[in-house]
Design brief:
mainly alpha; disordered N terminus; 136 residues; 4 helices
Length: 136
């Protein structure tokens, strides 16, 4: 990406077609806009180092950091909420499983009881048929 200086006509050594990839152009722009303390610091730097420092200084790190912390906090809160819901769901599933196991045991007991009653009924009916045959 090539950056162009919108106010290039105001700068002495910068022309309209110049890009900020050239350290000399950056130095001219910075010399025009920067306060004296910054000008002294950039004069001692090499091209790539100068451009990297210029890019870092143009980033508002405190805003990025605050946004990052806010986003991280929000995601952690969402994670905590999801974890709480997951724990509630696990507890609910465990309670339902326990309840289903109880129903299963009751059903087995009823099946056994019905089986016993059916056998008793068959025995009593056979005994009744024998008694009726003997009396007739």
């Amino acid at each position: 990406m090539i950056l162009r200086c919108p106010r290039s006509r105001l700068l002495k050594g910068v022309k309209v077609g110049d890009s900020f990839k050239d350290p000399a152009v950056c130095a001219d722009v910075l010399a025009h806009f920067a306060p004296p303390g910054v000008r002294d610091a950039y004069l001692e730097m090499e091209g790539d180092h100068f451009i990297s420092r210029l890019m870092l200084s143009s980033c508002n790190l405190s805003v990025f950091l605050a946004k990052g912390v806010t986003r991280f906090t929000k995601e952690m809160q969402e994670y905590e909420e999801v974890t709480k819901k997951k724990d509630k769901m696990k507890a609910s599933m465990a309670a339902m499983k326990k309840e289903v196991d109880g129903f299963s045991k009751k059903e087995d007991a009823w099946v056994k009881k019905v089986g016993e009653l059916t056998r008793r009924h068959e025995i009593e009916m056979n005994d009744l048929k024998k008694v009726l045959k003997q009396t007739s």
